[in-house]
Solute carrier family 15 member 1
Amino acid sequence: MADKEMKKKHKSATVCGYPISIFFIVVNEFCERFSYYGMRAVLVLYFKYFLRWDDDFATTIYHTFVALCYLTPILGAIVADSWLGKFKTIVYLSIVYAVGQIVMAVSAIHDITDANKDGTPDNMAFHVALSMVGLMLIALGTGGIKPCVAAFGGDQFEDHQEKQRSTFFSIFYLSINAGSLLSTVITPILRAQECGIHTKQKCYPLAFGVPAALMVVALIVFIVGSGMYNKTAPQGNIMVKVCRCIGFAIKNRFRHRSSRYPKREHWMDWAEEKYDKLLIAQVKMVVKVLFLYIPLPMFWALFDQQGSRWTLQATTMNGDFGLLTIQPDQMQTVNPILILALVPIMDSIVYPLISKCKLNFTPLKRMTVGMFLAALAFVAAALVQLQIETTLPKFPSEATSQAKFINMLDQPLHIEAGTNKFILEPYTATEDYLNFDDPFNLKLGSNDTELVSLADGTRNTIPIIQDGAQPRSLKFRDVTAKPEQGANAIRFFNSLDSVLNVTVRGLELTGIVNNNMSEYVNVPQGESKVFITNGVEVCEYSLTLGFGSSYTYIIPPSFRFTQNCGDSIGSVTDISPNSIHMAWQIPQYFLMTSGEVVFSVTGLEFSYSQAPSNMKSVLQAGWLLTVAVGNIIVLIVAEAATLPDQWAEYILFASLLVLVCIVFAVMAYFYTYTEPAKIEAQFAHMEPEDKEEKKRKSLEMGWKDSMEPRSEKRRSSDSSSDEEGRTQTKM
């Protein structure tokens, strides 16, 4: 009785011919996509800067998560079509999804009083475990509902509402890209905020918490519209039936591989003993398209690195765009912006021009071009990386040390350090670090030579101070890595007789005594107020910093607490700021997005035009599976290659895609386009074989008790599946 009620169409209220119920579905999709892409935008930085994983491991876990997100749609489709139906599947898995997002937000919260010096919590294993649980729940939720929501939206329309249904899918696609665009703008801003009670840290709990809240909103909105939905009962999953048919054909062919059995035109014909010819013909068409899918994962292997390797690349670049300061994870917004711009340009201008030039630009040729553009995008990324590496500091190896000298005397000083001889003017430093392999001899002016020992693998600053009548050297350890997240590591050297306290952006450096160096503090990019006090007088001035630099600020003996006190403070550059602008990433994003538009949109349209009417979902599952396999390829290549330079890895991926592109072009050359409707009509008009005759043939082949009733009805998928495949390009 319940099944009959579910099958019965519910007459939903309409506005301008559209069911009101689609409003709830569109809002649900917008919130869900905001939740997913917002969380994913900051995920790799969360791995690197909160969980303290290196670039390679952060990339590995990121792509493992994305792969799971595109493997679980198969499970969601089977559950929806075979047991629960689309509505219940969306509700139940959305609950799992929301719980996963909440767990991720909670995993980023820690008591800063129990943190280490670098801000990481002591109980890191707990946070890692919680994060992994959250990501697995999110992967199950977002992947499970992916094949259901669009098709459920199509269920809301009557058969005569084809125009309204088409408009709905356009709006649905717009909601996907709007959610993606807004989330990749907003969540990086939230992450960049400073939060914490005792010490300010990057606000990952807020960056994950807002997407979690949006997912809860998505679930509530969807449930509120429950009474207005048209709900259909589960009618069996065509993917399961296709897999069984293929499995039977392989098994039957293997069992009867001896020469006494006549050969058959196609290996799927070995399923004729159990399945009717129409189903076999449909499976042949599907297998033909799935065969073309084999090279496609390589495209996604490159495409999804926008959220991992390219984001990490942006952390070493300058994000100052004048009126705007762009965070590294915000560069991902270039992709959805370009998609919204390029899709109509391609459809309205580029393709019509190509057609007027009498060029046979077939769908498979378009996809080949899309793969080639993606390879070019990684070549562009490699060129940018080469430029970045020329600006990065050369840190010491494990067997060497480095030192920079600062003359704090009011007169020029002759210095001999190992084999290096130079003169330093008053209150100046050596332009760059000097390399030392072993303890070295240091001679200051007319002083006797002293032996200086530096720890291997360290950078050091050696100020030369006046000690009575003779100069004397001091040693201070410097940072040996670029400051993270575009911050700037700064410290102060006090050459005054009084004890100084320095405050920069609320960060206090207290008790800096004479001829001593403060600890480093990490200060964000932009303008910061600096307050220097000796307990009686105060010096206030502004300091403007770029991205990823390190400075030592010298407070000289001539320093006075006057109005322009900051003018007398000198600076020594330990690490230069990022000088390659993030705008140089735009060409690689443009090439990649162009490739996506030509490859992804065309690929879906081609696949659905070549698939039988009742097997669109099989092709959708296969398409999503190529995305999952592509992310697995990233894991394999990144782990196996172990290339020392990032630019070389980019070139490796580009080369692999070019190779795969050539293979795909050859496969496409030999592909013959089909018209599924005509083939289905041909078999539909054929007289069915007599059941007893089919049973006799089956027994002759040795397949006893294997017959399925001929009365089994072939179920067609919803007419919405065509629209779903053509419109849902942002998955």
Notes: The chain is about 50% helix and 15% strand. Confidence is low (pLDDT under 50) at residues 1-9, 704-728.
